[in-house]
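On clarity, I found the account of how folds are encoded harder to follow than it need be. Since the whole study asks how a given chain folds, the encoding of that fold should be made plain. For the editor and my fellow referees, an illustration may be useful. An entry of this sort, consisting of the sequence and the corresponding C-alpha cells, reads as follows:

:::
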Amino acid sequence: MRNCSILLSIMLILMVAPGCSDGESPIAGSGARSGERLAFSNGVEVMTTFAEEFYIPVSYTSEPEMPELGFPVEPEEIFNLQALASRAGLEDYPDGLLENGFTVWRPWFATDNPVAAYEIMEGWNQPVYVSAGIPLHMLHIFFDQILQSLEEDQLYDDLLEICSALYEANTERENWLNAAYFAVPLSFLDPNFIPDQAITDRVTAELDLISAHLGFEISPVFGYREDYSQYVPRGHYTSSVRLEKYFLAMMWLGRLTMLLNGGDPHGQGATFIVSEEDAIAMTASALEIVSDLGNQGHDGDNLLTKWRRIYEVTAFFAGFADDLSVPDYMAAATELTGGSTPSDSIWGQDFHSEFRELVNSSYDAPSIYSGTGALVSMPDGQGEFDPGDLEEAFIATTGFRFLGQRYTPDSDILGRMVFPAIGSNEDGGRRFMPTGLDIAAAFGSQAAYNILEERGDLDYAYYPDTLQSMRNMVEAYTPDDWHATLYMSWLHALYLLRDDRGAGYPDFMQTPAWERHTLSNFLASWAMLRHDTILYAKQSYTMEAGCAPGMDEPVPSAGFVEPVPEVYAELKATLQMAQRGLESYGLMDRNIEIRFDNAVSILSRLQVISEGELAGEQLTSEDADFLKYFASNLESAISWGGNTTEGLETTLIADVHTDQNSSSVLEVASGQLDWCLVVYRRPDGAVEAAAGPVLSYYEFTWPMSDRLTDEAWREMLISTPPARPDWTGDFVVGGR
C-alpha cells in the first residue's frame, strides 16, 4: 500500500512540476477597453435568511400516555389480525410482528403511487395506518412541482435575457473568456444562438464534452478539469425539453469558477489549480460581469434585479450559495475602488493582489469541495495523507460563481466524512464513499450510529471526532437556522422524525426495529429532497370472506396515525412558509393556493389525530371519516392539473456524492411503496392492527459516467432491482 502511494506521489509530482499545468490556459483576451469605467453599486441586498420573513411555527401538544401492550403479543389478542392479514395477502404472521408489534413487507400489488395504495385498502373495511413518510412525500410533491413550474415559466426567460446581455457586452469589449462563459448556456437556452468566430472552437469543444458527459476532462474554456458527468439532466429536469436546457445552463453557471488564487506550481496535485496570470484574468473577468449587471435589461429592469430574482427564488427552495458570488465581489470591489474604476486597472497584478488579500481575509471560502480541478491529495514521504488537504482544497477553489450551487449541511457532512479528512483503518483501507447513514448519525439517529459501528466505520481514523463535530454543528442550529430556507425546514422535519420514542408511545415505536424503520423513512425522504434540488445542491388477489363480529367482539376502527405531532406541525409550517414566500414574489395562483389549503388541512388533521392518540383518546367521527377516505383526501392535495399519477411517484433517485478515485457516485433513492402492519392497544383496551403504505430506501454506488435518471431507476426496479441496505433486513420481511 505504501509503495503504491509513493509511486503515485512521484508520478503526480512529475505531472505538476513548477510552472506546468495539466491543461491549456483559459481563453485569453484582456477585457480592458480604452476609456471604459466599471461601476460597482454600494452593496447588493439579497436575502440571507427567509425565516423572519415567512416562517411562523405551528404549536403542537405531545403528552404520550398510550396504554401499554407488552411483547410478545399473542395473535389471538389482536382481534382483527386474521382478517387484515388475509386482505393484505399475508399467508402467515410475518417474523417480528408478534415480537416487535409491527412488520414491513413488499406487497404483490406493488405501486409507487400513495393514492392508489390507499384506494386498494378502501374495500378492506380494516383500519388504515398513516405513516409519517406519506405527508413527507406530500411535501416533496409540492416542492418539486412548484419549483419545476417556476423554472420553466419564470426563471428560464430571465436567465436567457441575462446571459444574452452579458454575452453581448463582453463580445463588444473582446473579453473572450466571459463571452465564451455565457456562450455555453446561451447555446442551450437560445436555439438561434451562434457564438462569435473568435470563440467558436472552444465553445463547440465545451458543448461536445457536456453532451458526452463522461467524467473529468480539461475545460476548453477554463483550462482546468471539470466533471462533465454532472451534465446529465435528471430529477424533474427530464420532464420537458425546456427544463433540460435550463438544467444544462444552470449547471454550467453553478459549477464553473472564476478562480481567485493562482500561482506555481499549479495542477491537480499542486497548491494552485491555475497560474497567477490566469487567476488575474479570471478575477478581472468576474468583476466585469459584476459591473455589467448594473446595465438595463430589455424590459426596463436592470440585469441585477433579474439576477437577484433568480438567485433568491432558488435560494428560498434550495439554500444559499456556497461560493462567492455577485454580492461578495460587488462589496469587495466597491471597498477597493470607491464604486468606480477604469476597466484596465483591474487587470494589473497590484490590483489583483490587493483584491485577493481582501477577499481571502474578509470572505468565507467554500465549505463543500465540488470537484473543481479534480484535485489530488498527495502523500508525504512515508505515504501518509494530510487530513488538512480538504481545507487546502477550499482555498484553492475559492472564486466567483455566477449562480453558484448551494450550501446544505448534508452535503457538508458527506464531504467531510471521507478521504482525506477521514484517515485509514487498521487494514489500511480508506473511506472514499460516504453513506446516507452519515447524515442520519450527524442528525442524532442512534440507529444510524449503531449500524455504522457494526460496519466498522468508526474504526477509520478521525471518523468519530469528525462525526461528533458534525453532530455539534447540527445541535447548535437555532430556529432561524432551521428555517432559513425551505430546504432547511424539510431537514428540520426529518430531525424531529428521528427522535427516540419512550414510554407512552405505542410499544412498537419503542423497539430497536422501529428505530431502523424510522431511519429508512428518514433517508427515503432525504433522497427525495436531494432529488428535488439536484441542480442546486452541491421507487390481483382474492379477498377472504370475512365473518361478522360477535356481540362481544370489538369493531375495527378507521385507522391509526403514526403519532409524531411535532413532525406534522413542522411540515404544516413549512408549507405555509412556502405559501407566504410565493405570494411575496408574486408567484402564487388560485390553483396552487387551493392545493396548499388542502395539504395544510390534511396536516392539521394528522396532527390533531396523533395528539389525541398520544393522550389516550378515541377517534372522533370526523377523524374516522378522514381516515376512511384518506385516499381522496390525499389526492385533493397532491394531484396537480387533474393528473392523479404523474408526479406522485415515490420512485425517485439522486446522486449525492462523487468519488474521483473510483469514478463512481453514491446514488440514494426511494423505491416502490412497502406496506406496514402495526399493532397497538386502543383506549378501550382492544388490541388492534392497522396497515398502510410506507416509503422504501435504496443506496448504492454507480459509475459517474452513467448518473441515473428517474426513468432509468424505474426500469432498473422492474428488471434488475439492487439489494436494499443490509440493515433494512431487521424490519422488512424477507430481508433485503
Notes: Residues 133-172 form the longest helix (40 residues).
